[in-house]
Amino acid sequence: MKNIPIKAFAFAIACLSVLAPTAAFAQYGGASHYAYVETNDASLNQILVYKEGPGGALREVDAVATGGAGNGGSLGQGALTLAGNGHILFAVNNGSNTISVFRITPQGLTLLQVVASGGYGPLSISENEGLVYVLNAGGTLNNITGFVWTREAGLIPIPSSTKQLSAASPTPVQIGITPDANQVVVTEKATNLIDVFNLTWEGRPSSAVVNKSAAATPFGFAFDSLGDLLVSDANGGLTGGAEGSSYAINPSGTLAARTAVAPAHQTSACWATTDIEGRFLYLADAGSNAITAFRINYLGGLSLINPNGLAAATSPHPVDMAPSKDNQYLYALSNVGGAIDEFVIGADGSLTPIGTVYGLPTTASGLVTN
User: N or C: which end of the chain has fewer CB within 10 A?
Assistant: First the structure.
């Protein structure tokens, strides 16, 4: 666990904007599982809240302003992330260069903070053990910036935590903190590189350790139960050319491929997630409107569950996924389709469709559950 010194807090100014909780949660019946989506609207960014009902069906129960603006287009993977055992929600505001922090209560979402992201165009955010890192991908200098989250002080920037990526404009997609909170990972799809930043005990990053991706166009990623890095590879959008890769992350920041290339037989594998137990990897194939499922073996290797790579069809252009917290369901967000597709996760990792929620904005990005 990272121990961030208290002296780091003196370098930051927290801009607190505390609002009253929304009432919709109580209206729709107390404690349950929920899903959260960001609208990414360029004028009024909001968090859409969905309650999980019997059988896994989602129902929208609230929409809460972030206090910032989206970009009116699309984001990378990880526009939203949860912390504090699912009681804190972080959201990027790409159009206003800020991060919004919400507390999740039985009465709804309370906006706690809106803070500068440390750069331009925040795209993706990750949290682990109170350590928060954001990927800024706007302008000509793309970077990562770190923060500490505490209940008492809120979100506080870590001094000297801003580091540049491998190049000025590498089109990065996602940032993630490793499960042991020792490293930060960023995928760069334009350069076919994966950056790893080693963290000090204070949470400060090294310069990027630059790794060549085993497959082309690394996009989204997840971690398995052993801490291996599992990557979706769009392969330049080649029809039927989508792939997945898995890597061990060495303490030095170098990557060692466990499965260098696992063909998905679909198109443009972009977003990635695992089930809660880390036994299965799911790739959202934006070009073929599909989800591919892989088994993850005890060495981090990948093997297809369905020989043709098609685990399930989705609404047009799936852009993010998340399993329910009881690991019974997988939800897939499609922005072009303006929908969330709902699936039952089988014991073998298979997916069975159970319904679709329509009416989401075509700018919607980010999907997390608690």
Answer: N
Residue 366 lies in a domain: yes
Per-residue burial over 256-272, b if 16 or more Cβ lie within 10 Å, else e, is ebbbeebbbbbbbbbbb
Let me know if residue 25 belongs to a domain.
yes
Q: What is the pLDDT of residue 12?
A: 38
- Classify residue 365: in a domain, yes or no: yes
Residue in 155, 58, 46 with CA at minimum distance from that of residue 109: 46
Structure tokens at 247: 């890597």
Total number of domains constituting the chain: 1
Q: Does pTM surpass 0.85?
A: yes
Distances in Å between the alpha carbon of 169 and those of 127, 140, 164, 188, 345?
A: 24, 6, 10, 9, 38
Q: Which helix (H) or strand (E) holds 26?
A: helix 24-27
Cβ pair 283, 254 in contact under 8 A: no
How far apart CA 69 and CA 84 sit, in angstroms, is 25
Q: What percent of the chain has pLDDT over 90?
A: 86
- At 31, the pLDDT band (50, 70, 90 cuts) reads low
Query: Could you read off the pLDDT of 68-82 as tens digits, one per residue?
Result: 999 999 898 999 999
106 found inside a domain = yes
Residue 352: domain span? 13-116+322-328+346-370
